[in-house]
User: What shape does this take?
Amino acid sequence: MTDQTATITLGDTSVDSPVLKGSVGPDVVDIRKFYGQTGAFTYDPGFTSTASCESKLTYIDGDEGVLLHRGYPIGELAEHSSFMEVAYLLLNGELPSADALAHFDNTITRHTMLHEQLATFYRGFRRDAHPMAIMCGVVGALSAFYHDSTDIQDPHQRMIASHRLIAKMPTIAAMAYKYSVGQPFIYPRNDLSYTGNFLNMTFAVPAEDYEIHPAVERALDRIFILHADHEQNASTSTVRLAGSSGANPFACIAAGIACLWGPAHGGANEAALNMLREIGRPERIPEYIARAKDKDDPFRLMGFGHRVYKNYDPRATVMQKTVREVFAALKVNDPVFEVALQLEEMALSDDYFAEKKLFPNVDFYSGVILSAIGFPTTMFTALFALARTVGWVAQWNEMISDPAQKIGRPRQLYTGPTQRPYVPVDKR
Ligand code: ACO
Assistant: This one.
């Protein structure tokens, strides 16, 4: 809280609203009593000016291109940390000691198996179902399996549910992939790392082992770090809103997966790679830039622009470097990377993108890497969901333990018909 107040005058009524101060970032006007004092709502579709909660997890400065998890810059975490360590950090607030990390890693490893009954659940889906459709269904179905971890007021049970979700998501995503290609499911292996295990469950077959390339394992782990949390984005807000009613945690994460699937959010990495492939060769880039600028054409450069970043997305910087590493390790020479680099360069030197502060976001390069590793485009968003589960459960835990937490219930500006009498069908 600051000693400042914001005064809003509405007709004859003046309301003084306290101004709250975070540890860093913009001040926040507390309008909780505004409706009670004025009888008026505030209007903010898309929450562009509204802080929906207090949080200690992640800080973004979109103008400066800064992303911090519990205070640590994303670039440093991507360089020096591991996904398991970042998961621990987000859930617990501090970096773990070596012992604490080993214990956490072991706990997650020992929760990676799915109830065997869930394997039959997959068979209810068509083989051509999108992996995100399967993940939505299967994760939602977990709520029917783990009744012992659903007293959400008990922090211990909340943590068990969180560990289960983080641990089982790679198994669920890999099984969604296996189902779509008609291969048998591969069980998790406790001798592998979190990310190595996911690669193995995705690409191994019973007839042949999959050799985990250390550079690929490291690159994918880094991609998971980059996607672990991102403040109050659409899917995280969905998880919080669903959870605010006291709903089952597995069902809340299924809601987050549904939201993430959209092309304006997690679906953008799939859309970005499809766009780069469609462009195909550098000579065609100007045509696509012109289309993106044309007001009469709904086309947008996918992987460009961000609601919060009005500068280079710091995750895109790490991604661009990771493309080079993976391509070198796998000896890949996909022309799509050259198209991406040249598209970025041309867009960044174009007034339209400069004026609107449109820069590459995390999704611009991630598809290029995932494709080189061997993932089909339909799996990209599933991988994003896998990683973001860490942020979702950390944010959900934070919300439930927040004494100011209430059921989320926005209001509206109603512009429909006013009250009118019902007209019987023969009189219409
Ligand atoms: N290509 C061309 N023009 C764009 C683009 C783009 N990628 N993104 C925004 N613009 C333009 C809009 O047309 C608009 O122009 P106008 O002011 O003349 O009407 C202006 O920039 C602002 O765009 P909004 O859609 O109002 O910005 P908003 O903050 O609502 O949208 C979003 C952000 C959804 C990410 C948008 O930039 C977009 O659609 N990008 C492409 C999809 C994408 O990459 N999504 C991934 C986001 S990151 C993530 O979810 C992990």
User: Anything to note?
Assistant: The longest strand covers residues 13-20. Residues 155-181 form the longest helix (27 residues). The mean pLDDT is 94.
